[in-house]
Automatic annotation (TrEMBL):
GO molecular-function term, one example from the UniProt record: 3-deoxy-7-phosphoheptulonate synthase activity
CC annotations in GO: cytoplasm
Keyword Amino-acid biosynthesis: yes
Keyword entries, A-Z: Amino-acid biosynthesis, Aromatic amino acid biosynthesis, Transferase
Entry similarity comment: Belongs to the class-I DAHP synthase family.
Species of origin: Pelagicoccus albus
Name of this chain's protein: Phospho-2-dehydro-3-deoxyheptonate aldolase
GO-annotated biological processes: amino acid biosynthetic process; aromatic amino acid family biosynthetic process; chorismate biosynthetic process
Short name of any one Pfam family annotated for the protein: DAHP_synth_1
Membrane-spanning segments: none
Length: 353
């Protein structure tokens, strides 16, 4: 019995060794690709400003999390960011624009898992190159004043990018995971916790409660060594309504239920509405009407709404990642609204506030 076990262990260790590629630690990556002073200031300022919106200290402005479903091409992300920065400046008094820079994608089954895994979209062969590319892009964006948001999916990857992010989310597929709730409680930025895949509110509310709490949990330090981490809890944890298999949840009753649940947890403006995903039935053309309905509720007096999320890219729609030459600036994951429509929508939202 004992020798069998040893034999099996020896075999599996050999397999693991064959299948492992060492990558630099988060500490090394941060040292090699640091944020400059402007970048650090952008991150810090946006974290505070988002926190002020969530706590109701800034009751004037709407948080707008807007950008590609996923970053698959850094050049198109740079072009997008340039336009985004101009728009953000234009609507500054009415809205705080934070760019979606999503480098990991949770898949319903399988598919491209994001730039961190497969930076050239040609197979998962050089993941560390993806991390370095993402950091380079984030250093450029934050250095030029664009604040960034992402979904934190693999907890081991968070330390590679979290210092560049002003806002984070935990997605519908992982919001019930204790490991992700612990991560959310550690992260030093506002974190939106999405409702689960069925569209029910309770998974998000339970996740907010957990993320607000202190935890001790097993993780790694910045050098990649196993570590027991202690957290104080995240007071910027809040709900993102994204709809689900039971239908959308951006109607006034669903929003007010979420606002009330948030208030019981001490959040005065604790709700962000994702206008895409389950709230648009993944039809990008519906995002604008979802956003306008949320705005209507806000203008009618629903002051618990902190913000909205939009999936937007240079070119509207979606294309396959593997079907020949690609359209520059069009999503290879979920369909997005195009830049012209994004600009019109954000201007319209700002004008109505
Ligand atoms: O936001 C992106 C997608 O909705 C998510 O990654 C799931 O995509 P999939 O259902 O195509 O795998
Ligand atoms: C995957 C995402 O969202 P959700 O978790 O709501 O599906 C996303 O926002 O990219």
């Amino acid at each position: 019995m004992k020798s069998d076990l040893l034999e099996q262990t020896a075999v599996s260790t050999a397999e693991v060794d064959d299948q492992c590629i060492s990558i630099p630690s988060p500490f090394q990556m941060r040292q090699n690709l640091p944020l400059d002073e402007n970048g650090q200031a952008t991150v810090a300022r946006a974290r505070t400003e988002i926190g002020d919106i969530l706590q109701g200290k800034d009751s004037e402005r709407l948080l707008i999390l807007c950008g590609p479903c996923s970053i698959d091409n850094v050049n198109s992300a740079l072009v997008y960011a340039e336009r985004f920065a101009r728009l953000a400046e234009e609507v500054l008094d009415k809205a705080l624009l934070v760019m979606r820079t999503y480098f990991e994608k949770p898949r319903s089954v399988v598919g491209w898992k994001g730039l961190l895994y497969d930076p050239m979209t040609e197979g998962e062969r050089s993941p560390a190159a993806g991390i370095a590319l993402a950091r380079r892009l984030l250093a450029r964006l934050t250095g030029s004043g664009v604040s960034c948001a992402t979904e934190f999916l693999n907890p081991l990857l968070a330390p590679y990018l979290e210092d560049c992010m002003s806002y984070g989310s935990i997605g519908a597929r992982t919001v019930e995971s204790q490991i992700h709730r612990e991560l959310a409680s550690r992260l030093e930025m506002p974190i939106g916790l999405k409702n689960g895949m069925d569209g029910g509110l309770s998974s998000a509310v339970n996740a907010v409660r957990s993320a607000q709490s202190s935890h001790s949990f097993y993780s790694q330090d910045l050098h990649g060594c196993p570590a027991l981490v202690s957290t104080q809890g995240n007071n910027g944890a809040h709900v993102i309504l994204r709809g689900g298999s039971n239908g959308p949840n951006f109607d006034s009753k669903s929003v007010s239920n979420a606002v009330d649940a948030g208030r019981l947890l001490g959040l005065s403006r604790g709700v962000v509405v994702d206008c895409s995903h389950g709230n648009s039935g993944k039809d990008h053309r519906k995002q604008a009407s979802v956003a306008m309905e949320v705005l209507r509720q806000k203008v009618a007096g629903q002051d618990g709404i902190a913000g909205i999320m939009l999936e937007s890219n240079l070119v509207a729609g979606q294309q396959s990642a593997n079907a020949g030459p690609r359209v520059f600036g069009q999503s290879i994951t979920d369909a997005c609204i195009g830049w012209k429509d994004t600009e019109c929508l954000v201007r319209e939202l700002a004008a109505s506030l």
